[in-house]
Design brief:
8 helices; mainly alpha; transmembrane helix; 485 residues; rod-shaped
Length: 485
């Protein structure tokens, strides 16, 4: 028996398993590194989105303070003052969080400038509120005009927009880095799978070649020995027939298993296609929510414009009331002058009769002017009441719009979560489909091998005619196979 040192069949089999396992370990390490990078990028993206939301919150606090100040100027209602103080406190908290969270140097400069402008804004509105508390509402409105408060508000809004745009650019850069990391992860997995497949095929081919050589050598010895064996032919034929039947049953079972695997692959592909459709629908829902957010922003700007128009209408109504009061005073003075003129006409006797008629007409005109002034005052009071009601309705509308924006943002976040989950389902379905296809191919190869083995077993059963001699050589060949394996 040949005892020279060489690679045995079990060594080749171990090599065939170890090389793909090593490739998978290396790919798993690379994938873990990419996943850690993705986790870091995800944290930075989450921080950027939180900064964006806090900037929006600062803008919302400014709007609340502006509305509360206008409401306090119009009605001097304690609720408006409470809203102003709450918005101011909330703004202080959010700015402190932004200062601790923002790391971008340009964004920190924008935050410092924004803090300066908003402090001016708060000082201006606090001064107006103090004047209202001192019953100097007109002076508060005049301060707003002289200090050009609208320009300050516009400058703050522009700076907030710049901060949001910069944060959007940061998010876009991080998303680009994240997409590159995902691409590297996919490339790593694809290369690892390809290398594993190629190496497995190469090692498998070498194992098959090695096994074929050993089997061919052993089969030659068996064939040469089988021709010399003269006994036990019937038992060998029965054994071969039973083996052929077993192989046939195994082939049938493997055919059924192959059909089941192909059906599973088709179902996995259908599931992947359905998940792709759901992903497309989720993305469409996200875009619709974004359009709703844009529409809510436009509606909020229009409501603010209506509030400004109502403030100007209130000022003009107050001016009309002042003019009406002046007309009423003039009518009273005219009435007094007419009365004095009538007295003087009586003193004048015949010479003052014509003057008495004129003074009577002037008194009538003064009475009519006074009645008209009273009607105007009543109309002004009604208009002022309507304006106050409109202010309240406008404020409620603004709150409703803000609530709609918040709900739309929550809906957008939910759609984003759905899209991510569906994307994971798509990836898993595609991986399952690939695995099932590979199993179907492997099962088909096993079926072909079993069919070939079945044919060979039947030919062996029909080809055995005589077993006479060569038992020693047959045992020696069997020992060689045992040592090789």
């Amino acid at each position: 028996m040949n005892k020279r040192k060489s690679w045995k069949l079990r060594h080749w089999i171990v090599l065939g398993y170890s090389v793909p396992v090593l490739a998978l370990v290396v790919s798993a390490g690379m994938a873990a590194a990419n996943v850690r990078q993705l986790m870091t990028i995800s944290g930075e993206l989450r921080s950027a989105w939180e900064t964006h939301e806090k900037v929006d919150h600062v803008n919302l606090n400014l709007q609340i303070m502006a509305r509360a100040t206008r409401g306090y100027l119009l009605q001097r209602h304690p609720t408006s003052l409470l809203d102003f103080n709450e918005a101011k406190s909330d703004y202080m908290t959010v700015v402190s969080e932004l200062d601790a969270q923002i790391t971008n140097e340009e964004q920190r400069q924008n935050l410092a400038q924004l803090t300066t402008l908003i402090n001016q804004f708060i000082t201006l509105h606090q001064g107006m509120i103090d004047l209202v508390n001192q019953n100097q509402t007109a002076a508060g409105v005049q301060i707003w005009r002289e200090s050009n408060g609208r320009a300050l508000t516009g400058e703050i809004g522009s700076l907030l927009t710049d901060m949001e745009d910069l944060e959007g650019e940061i998010v876009a850069r991080q998303e680009t880095i994240q997409a590159a990391a995902l691409w590297r992860l996919q490339l790593t997995l694809l290369i690892a799978a390809t290398l594993s497949l190629l190496l497995s095929a190469l090692i498998g081919t070498l194992v098959i070649i090695k096994a074929s050589r050993i089997m061919d050598q052993a089969a030659g010895n068996i064939v040469s020995s089988a021709s010399e064996i003269a006994t036990s032919i019937e038992q060998q034929e029965r054994s071969s027939s039973q083996q052929a039947a077993s192989v046939s049953e195994t082939s049938t079972t493997m055919d059924e298993l192959g059909a089941s695997s192909r059906q599973s692959a088709e179902q996995a592909e259908a599931a992947a296609a359905g998940a792709q459709q759901v992903l497309a629908l989720a993305e469409g829902g996200t875009r619709a929510v974004e359009r709703s957010l844009d529409g809510m922003g436009d509606l909020r700007e229009k409501v603010d414009a209506i509030a400004d128009q109502i403030l100007r209408l209130s000022e003009q109504t107050n001016q009309i009331g002042g003019i009406s009061s002046l007309v009423s005073d003039l009518a009273n003075q005219t009435n007094m002058l007419a009365l004095n003129a009538a007295v003087e006409a009586v003193r004048a006797g015949e010479h003052g009769k014509g003057f008495a008629v004129v003074s009577g007409e002037i008194r009538k005109l003064a009475d009519q002017s006074k009645k008209s002034a009273e009607k105007i005052n009543a109309l002004v009071a009604d208009i002022q009441t309507a304006i106050n009601s409109t202010v309240m309705v406008t404020d409620e509308g603004t709150k409703t719009v803000e609530e709609g924006v918040r709900i739309a943002e929550e809906t957008a976040d939910a759609f984003a979560g759905v899209a991510e989950a569906v994307n994971n389902v798509v990836l898993n379905s595609q991986q399952i489909s690939l695995n099932v296809k590979q199993q179907a191919v492997a099962i088909q190869q096993v079926v072909s091998a079993m069919n070939s083995l079945n044919t060979g077993a039947q030919e062996t059963a029909h080809g055995i005619t005589q077993i006479k001699v060569g038992t020693h050589q047959l045992n020696e060949s069997a020992l060689q196979l045992k040592v090789a394996i």
